[in-house]
Amino acid sequence: MWGGRTGALLRAWGLWPAGVRGRRPLGCNAASLAGNNSPQCWNCGGPGVPKRGDGFFCPQCRALQPPDLTRDYFSLMDCNRAFAVDTAKLQNRYQQLQRLVHPDFFSQRSQTEKDFSEKHATLVNDAYKTLLAPLSRGLYLVS
């Protein structure tokens, strides 16, 4: 099932599909799992994602990197962590991020990048829906 280059990368990073005993879930950022502050690119093995910017793409090969599922919705959407949110700014940021990571833009890329794109788009959609509605925003703030 997980053969070839993808399987080798998963084994090298210590990642494996969720539900397989003794392994970590696939959806996590490799850097957060390893406790490493400088992640490596899954595609080229380069020094990794820069700390500045969104960190969605490798600076060397421009391959889409795995999403950081631990990232706060407010930081992802570039908003202050407060109940009052500028919805126009939130909508602009949502559109900007979707232009970067929407799966339609990765149709000619590798299956790994397609999967990462879907995960990024889902994360962005969840963050937008949560922060747009006042009730869900408030619940997210207190959780």
Automatic annotation (TrEMBL):
Q: Which GO terms describe its biological process?
A: [2Fe-2S] cluster assembly
Q: Outline the extent of the HscB tetracysteine metal binding motif domain.
A: 39-65
Q: Where is the signal peptide?
A: 1-22
Please provide the record's keywords in A-Z order.
Signal
Question: Molecular function terms in GO for this entry?
Answer: ATPase activator activity; protein-folding chaperone binding
Q: Which GO terms describe its cellular component?
A: mitochondrion
Query: Is Signal one of the keywords?
Result: yes
Q: Which Pfam families match?
A: HscB_4_cys (PF18256)
**UniProt-recorded name of the protein:** HscB mitochondrial iron-sulfur cluster cochaperone
Q: Which organism is it from?
A: Panthera leo (Lion)
Give the encoding gene's name.
Answer: HSCB
